[in-house]
Amino acid sequence: MGIAERKEKQKQDIKKMILDASMKLFIEEGFEHVTMRKIADLIEYSPTTVYLYFKDKNEIFFHLHELGFQKMLEMNSNLPEIKNPLMRLYKMGENYINFGMQNQEFYDVMFIQHAPMDALAQMENCDWSLGDTAIGALQVLLQECMEKGLIQKAPVEAVAMAIWGMVHGLVSLAIRDRMNKLVPKEKLVSTMHTSLNWLLGTIDNSFNKE
Amino acid sequence: MGIAERKEKQKQDIKKMILDASMKLFIEEGFEHVTMRKIADLIEYSPTTVYLYFKDKNEIFFHLHELGFQKMLEMNSNLPEIKNPLMRLYKMGENYINFGMQNQEFYDVMFIQHAPMDALAQMENCDWSLGDTAIGALQVLLQECMEKGLIQKAPVEAVAMAIWGMVHGLVSLAIRDRMNKLVPKEKLVSTMHTSLNWLLGTIDNSFNKE
DNA sequence: TTGGTAAATTAACGGTGTTAAGTATTTTTA
DNA sequence: TAAAAATACTTAACACCGTTAATTTACCAA
Asked: What is the Cα–Cα distance from B95 to B56, expressed in whole angstroms?
């Protein structure tokens, strides 16, 4: 039955077209300018056709949010080659900030917008596995650092939340225009790195010993 | 001219009615359920009348965002009585987290939503003075702590950004449902306090000396 | 060729922010 | 006090939005 296969492939192709169009719209014009009608226009179908491939708009954003995590993962592909876990931690934080600031619309849908979480709440498997995996990786890394005596021992969960909280806080405040006056635009990213380095420096044992 | 005064007062009364209605709506039903028509319904005027008192919806949210800062300031009224600046810093952070978690819709419009900043961008005085004042207070406090040798010396701006970033990151991740699985709901606030205490503990000199 | 199925569309519903034009109402002036 | 001017408010409409029901078109199997 090659016919069924081809049909299935066509279906996947159109799904991809829809996601590509959505991505184009929200990268170029921003989240709030992504509308079902504009998506339909871009792929040259009627608006209702989109609903044959996705349950609703939230589901589309859920898929975009997944693509965002994929992109983020690619950005972290330079991590495994860093042997020193503490250096890996520094780099991980810097990657996070850079990813957020260079892909603001992706960051928005991954960590700020309600839409993908609303879609998630209506799925059978309601876990935010992508996010939980990411924070899990941070916890494992922190654990390794502590075991090797590179950073001060402390409850891993609390430290992980603190670090994630800080980098997310910096990026999301910047994205939502709350840092416009505090730091000049061109120094924003470098100041964030300074803050991150300060935080990691305070828990860095080699730093404190000196 | 008592008439002009009375008219002016009436005008202010209606403005207040509009803001009260908006506040009621967004506290009880959430930000996205605040619509011009619902506001008009609540105050029993036609939708267009609202535009005679506010330029647009963003301007209404700007005023709500101001009221949020006022509420936050009230919550910090217990700070001046704390003589030890380091203890004041702890309390300030805890207040921030508590305010955000107890007034999620206010927090949303103050630090996450675009609306008030969009309104600000179209005003003659484009400074986000409320936000900048708040972060300024944090910087002054940190400066005092450093001068008295209570915490390790470091660039004030970077440390302030790190602390603000962290508490904002924690609260905003929670508000936007990114911590549902990571921490059980009932332990969320206490875990945030743990993270904050961990961060401040690492820079607390009295803590490190022991 | 016909019948059935899958895919896509048209039309519509109820909502949104916002504006232009028109109607009351109130105040000022002659 | 009556007419004119200014103020306050409403009605109607525009151009959107997400979403659904009903309908048409395109395709494949017998």
From this structure: 32
Do A78 and A31 reside in the same domain of the chain?
Answer: no
Predicted TM-score of the model (pTM) = 0.95
Residue of A154, A164, A194 lying closest to B169 (CB–CB): A164
Q: Find, among A173, A167, A174, the residue nearest to A97 by Cα.
A: A167
Calculate the angstrom distance between C1' of D20 and CA of A7: 26
Return left, alpha or beta for A30; rule: phi > 0 is left, psi -120 to 50 is alpha, else beta. Answer: left
**Residue A27: both structure tokens together:** 């990268």
pLDDT at B4: 67
CATH number, residue A41: 1.10.10.60
From CA B58, how far away is CA B63, in angstroms rounded?
A: 9
C20 nearest neighbour residue (CA to C1'): B48
Taking an 8 Å cut-off on Cβ atoms, the answer to whether B195 and A161 are in contact is yes
Residues A143-172: pLDDT tens digits?
Answer: 999 999 999 899 999 999 999 999 999 999
Q: Are B31 and B73 in contact (CB under 8 A)?
A: no
Task: Say which of A112, A157, A166 has its CB closest to residue B112.
Answer: A112
- Same domain? For A140 and A188 the reply is yes
The answer on B34 and B81 residing in a single domain is no
**Count of domains in chain B?**
2
Burial of B104-141, coded b for 16+ CB within 10 Å and e otherwise, reads: bbbbbbbbbbbbbbbbbeeeeeeebebbeebbeebbeb
Range of the domain at B163: 57-209
Q: pLDDT for A15-36, tens place per residue?
A: 999 999 999 999 999 999 999 9
